[in-house]
Design brief:
It contains seven helices and 14 strands. With 278 residues, the protein is α/β, with parallel strands linked by helices.
Length: 278
């Protein structure tokens, strides 16, 4: 038996589960909106291969979401015992994603510190960003986009990684002021930020934040997620969190970090429906 087949039973699933959340909020006055969150791919061979990614892209497209969001970490964690897959190959597969209101992405921490081009250029360049910029996917690098929906519109703001240079004890590349610079005061706004920790800042310019990064803790021991990579422990580990009148969705994502192992926290595509509030 070839060694590759020994890995097959525990590779990232070709058809991950779909986890659904419904948010009803009075600030959402537009028609219902469905968003597919496809997070933390960490594409590599054999754990989350290009072939598996291709099947998952078809699965996401089949959900019929109005909008597809990619909250970062496209490339593999260098600590994993896996073959690195270049960003250009990953984005070429993701280019097949399609939704009526568009496909949008931000970068994650691993897209910076595990990118050879970023390290070689002292973070002046990034292979994932370059691949996204030449694709049909809109890369929201600390900027926003107004999206028409029904008879009105909403704003989607994207923020770069907060932990891009954490291993060097340097600030990240996130810039919330730039991300929200074009968003009118009081407009319905959604923020996509790879790491959920920004939610603790209490920024009221977005009533909903979409994040990944945590992999749901990657290990879920009956609700205890001790491996969650966050300053706040398990506070923002997974799922729908509400603080005051603001909402946070943290997707469990697809891939792995550190070890190619998930304990009771299977890979997922997250589907979020926004409904008119009363």
């Amino acid at each position: 038996m070839k060694p590759r087949k020994l890995f097959a039973p525990i590779t990232a699933y070709s058809h991950p589960r779909v986890v659904r959340h419904v948010i009803t909020d009075p600030r959402w006055t537009l028609p219902d909106l469905t968003m597919a969150i496809f997070a933390d791919l960490h594409v590599c061979d054999p754990w989350t291969s290009l072939a598996a990614l291709r099947r998952m892209v078809s699965q996401v497209n089949g959900l019929g979401a109005d909008l597809i969001l990619l909250p970062g970490d496209f490339i593999v964690d260098r600590k994993l015992p896996a073959r690195f897959v270049e960003a250009e190959q990953i984005v070429a597969e993701l280019a097949s994603l399609s939704a009526p209101l568009g496909v949008f992405a931000v970068l994650g921490n691993h897209d910076w510190w595990d990118c050879r081009l970023a390290r070689q250029s002292r973070f002046a360049r990034n292979s994932v960003a370059q691949a996204l910029e030449t694709s049909p996917i809109s890369h929201l690098a600390n900027r926003s986009c107004e999206i028409a929906h029904g008879s009105g519109s909403f704003w989607l703001a994207g923020m770069d990684s907060q932990g891009a240079r954490k291993h060097l004890h340097l600030p990240g590349f996130h810039d919330p002021e730039a991300a929200f610079a074009d968003v009118p005061e009081g407009a319905a706004a959604i923020l996509m930020a790879h790491e959920p920790d920004y939610f603790a800042e209490g920024d009221a310019r977005a009533f909903l934040q979409i994040s990944g990064h945590t992999h749901g803790g990657q290990a879920n021991l009956f609700g205890w997620r001790p491996m969650t990579p966050s300053r706040y422990g398990g506070r923002y580990a997974y799922g729908h969190i509400q603080e005051g009148d603001r909402h946070l969705i943290v997707s469990g994502g697809i891939g792995y970090s550190g070890l190619p192992l998930r304990i009771l926290q299977p890979p997922e595509i997250t589907l979020v429906m926004l409904r008119r509030g009363i």
